[in-house]
Amino acid sequence: MPVTTPAAPPAATALPQDFGALLREDPEIADVLLAELRRQSGTLQLTAAENFTSPAVLAALGSPLANKYAEGYPGARHHGGCEQADAAERIAVRRATSLFGAEHANVQSHSGSSAVLAAYAALLRPGDTVLAMGLPYGGHLTHGSPANFSGRWFEFIGYGVDSESGLIDYHQVRTLARSHRPKAIVSGSISYPRHPDYEVFREIADEVGAYLIADAAHPMGLIAGGAAPSPVPYADVVCATTHKVLRGPRGGMILCGAELAERIDRAVFPFTQGGAQMHTVAAKAVAFGEAATPAFSAYAHRVVSHARVLAAGLEAEGFDVTTGGTDTHLIVADPAPLGVDGHTARARLAAAGLVLDTCALPYSDARGIRLGTAAVTTQGMGDSGMARLAALFGAAVREEGDVLSEVRELAAKFPPYPG
Ligand SMILES: *Cc1c(COP(=O)(O)O)cnc(C)c1O
User: CATH number of the domain at 294-413, out of 3.40.50.11240, 3.40.1190.10, 3.30.450.150, 3.90.1150.10?
Assistant: First the structure.
């Protein structure tokens, strides 16, 4: 079934940036960007990996640093005129190390996948064995998909979750580690709604002499706000995105101890990337600054409490929520008890202005739906908004009533960029 979201009404929406020049110079693309802004503010964004960055982050992204070439690292660039690029990157690195309590930060990775690629490049050789969550259980493409470099260049062994509880089966992780002796073990997932037990992962890695790579792309913002445990004290390398719950610009980052700093930096540049995107590095600095505030910590905790309310509401509506709930922003639910599969549910929800993804369900051939509360929490929808949302989910999937109008009303009440 095709997934189409209805066009948003031409609601008056505050522009987060000065679009004046674009409107004058290129109305064709300006129209597309304005339509996208109306789509984002006229529907509700439940895609688990998405959020709304602040106007300050958007301003840094649209700044003159976008013009600057700065291959290398602060104080050691291959280009002239890097004084301000150096200043921006030093601030970003200082804020990242202080925010996450890490000895070293590399803030140049273009994306979460690039960060994982660099981590593998720093620690592994092609052909090495890596133990990571299997893709049918929620592993990311970079955790051994045959369609990704990871599956082509390394021998991936997949661990899974318990068929009853849906929780990571650490006994299986240990058994697989003992028999396959991986060079690295990866924690992290695109859809696991609970906290990985980093202490147990560390123990298992130590027992078999493996590196522990934490791919914290999803929960990094919760970690920044103290709403999820940090892998930094346990993992050799922590990879993350800056654009999910962390609410920064689209990009990646890597944290590690001082002893791996040089290897990680060289694995990013020049091994897997060229010039850093300095406007994005500056925007990451802005986001790290925002994430260090008490307001962000309160936000991160609200993201989790909202997800818990929404998960309970979805269960009450008849959805089967995996692991029975969530400890994070992520919810995975099987709509089968409502008589539809994930694809049909997603299409019906999209038609009602509720935008989200399908995802694999462990031990099932059917797909479920995956959603997250990062964006709607940024919009300030509150716990009562989450209870309302759950009811709208039920109605949309059962095709009862005019859910789209109600979604439009909610979206208008909580604009992502008020002003
Ligand atoms: C999102 C994600 C990534 C990749 O991030 P991109 O920026 O899309 O490349 C990697 N690993 C995990 C676990 C993720 O959730």
Answer: 3.90.1150.10
